[in-house]
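Final report, closing paragraph on structural work. Over the funding period we assembled a curated collection of sequence-structure pairs, and we close with a single example.
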Amino acid sequence: MQIRKITAEDAGKFLKMLHQLDSETDMMMFEPGERNHSVEDIIEMIKRREKVNALTLGIFANDHIAGYLVAERGNANRVKHSFYLHLGILKNYQGEGLANKLLKYLIEFAQNHSVKRIELTVRVDNQKAVSLYQKFGFEIEGIKKCSLFTNNSYIDEYYMSKILD
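Its predicted structure, as stored:
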C-alpha cells in the first residue's frame, strides 16, 4: 500500500471509495446515495485544494483507494493557520495502522506549511476514533450537541484540536 497525494487523475477512484465509505458506516457525514458529486466536481475540489496548500491524501491498494485524509486550510486570513480534518478508512482496511500513518503524514505536512492548529469533529460514540486522535495529542474542546441526525436519533459530536509547536 502507498500513501500519496490524490491527484485529478485519481478522482474517479476517490469518488468510488467515498461512495463505498458512505454505505459502510454511519460515522461519516453522508448517508448512502446522498453524495451527488460528479467526477468533474471531485477534480475541481482536488485542484482547488492544491492551490491553497490543503492536503488530500489517499491510501492506494492496487487499483483502488482504501482510505483518505483531507485537511482543509481556512480561507480568511485569521484562520489560515488552521486545518480542518476529515479522515476515513474502508472497513476491510481498518485495524492495519493506516489512520496512524495518515495522521503522522498530516502533522509533518502541517508543521512544514505554517499550520498551528488542526481541528475536527467526531461523534461522541466513536470511541475508536476519539482514542486515535487523543493518541496523537488531540484534545476535546467541547461538545456540539445534537450535531447529527441518524437512525432516528440526534448524536452529539466532540470538537477536538491539536495545537502544533
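The longest strand covers residues 139-150. The two ends are 30 Å apart (CA to CA). We thank the funder for supporting this effort.
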